[in-house]
Amino acid sequence: MPDSAAPVTWPEGNTPLVERDAVREFTGVRRLSLKHEGMNPTGSFKDRGMTVAVTDAVRCGARAVACASTGNTAASLAAYAAHARIPALVLVPRGNVAAGKLAQATAYGARTLLVNGDFDACLTLARDASRTLGVYLANSVNPWRLEGQKTIVWELLEQLEWRPPDWIALPAGALGNTAAFGKALREARALGLITTVPRILAVQAAGAAPFARGFAHGFTDRVTVRAETVATAIRIGDPASWDRAVRTIRETDGIVTMVTDSDIMEAKAVLDGSGVGCEPASAASVAGVRALAERGVIASDAHVVCVLTGHVLKDPDAVSSYHAGDSKRANPPIQVEPTLDEVERVLRAT
Question: Which of 28, 31, 157, 217 is deepest in the core (most CB within 10 A)?
Fold first, then answer.
């Protein structure tokens, strides 16, 4: 059995804060930085919360850990449970999980359950299993997960020498990060580490935008939708952390917006082409900043940090599909004969 006093860690965190001129030009924001959480061990921000949650599961003597997932949580839980040497169950919507993420969960040894339903059905089942079967639920409804995820904000503030940006933009699905970011900023200000609070921009895909629709009506009602988007990591119609995320938006004078799948994939192509790369959901943060900059909501000289939540290889099918299409940024492979003339022909066209 693992030591119940020892943290279950890879380690995670210490992700880079990078700058790319191409992304700044694309958004129209001259002081834009990228906090790339895809550089965590399993390729997403989920590792920050999972180290804390699985450590707590070991402390509690849990018989097993479980989660519902669109992919990244499953991959992270599987890895950390393997490290802790406790069984893991991951419930994912059949046919709606990117291949890279499903491969990770399987490779790390989790029992992967392909549920005939969407993410929200998976979460309901995972919650029932937690209550009835005594397994430890590791979704973002678990407060320990948010304690880990708030370190994204603490770390980027430290990287900026505690001079907060004007905006922090992030993709929004289950809203765990939105809730965690608000908690991090609240605590940083209370501790005197910062004196001003960045505005939070939570960005959803138009086909999975219950939080954006709720924001548009002042959060008078909790909205649910049947989610559909190419950005599988945020394909969630009934966000679990709704109330805590509402608090974040209100406390930071934040904004919730939505962008189309086309907007997301164009932003992803720019990010990928800059050598940074990310999965589709990550690019929603950049697409959202571009949309608000075009409307004059975000000033061109504002300091903005966009959080990229997952690695480019999380969803290789999305990359292949995009570059096989007719987008002006498409970069399909070129078939050639084995001659120098053919290579020269390609070079001339580059």
Answer: 157
On whether the CB atoms of residues 101 and 318 are closer than 8 A, the answer is no
* Continuous segment of H or E residues that includes residue 205: strand 199-205
Q: How confident is the model over 244-300, as pLDDT tens digits?
A: 999 999 999 999 999 999 999 999 999 999 999 999 999 999 999 999 999 999 999
Pairing of strands 167-171, 111-115: unpaired
Containing domain of residue 151, as a range?
Answer: 17-43+145-323
- pLDDT 10s digits, 11-20: 999 999 999 9
**Whole-prediction pTM value?**
0.93
Q: Which residues contact 118 (CB under 8 A, 6 or more apart)?
A: 93, 96, 226, 227, 235, 237
Last-in-domain residue among 113, 144, 175: 144
Query: Residue 37 is part of a domain; what is its CATH number?
Result: 3.40.50.1100
Indicate if 177 and 164 belong to the same structural domain: yes
With 0-12 / 13-18 / 19 or more C-beta atoms within 10 angstroms meaning exposed / middle / buried, residue 104 is buried
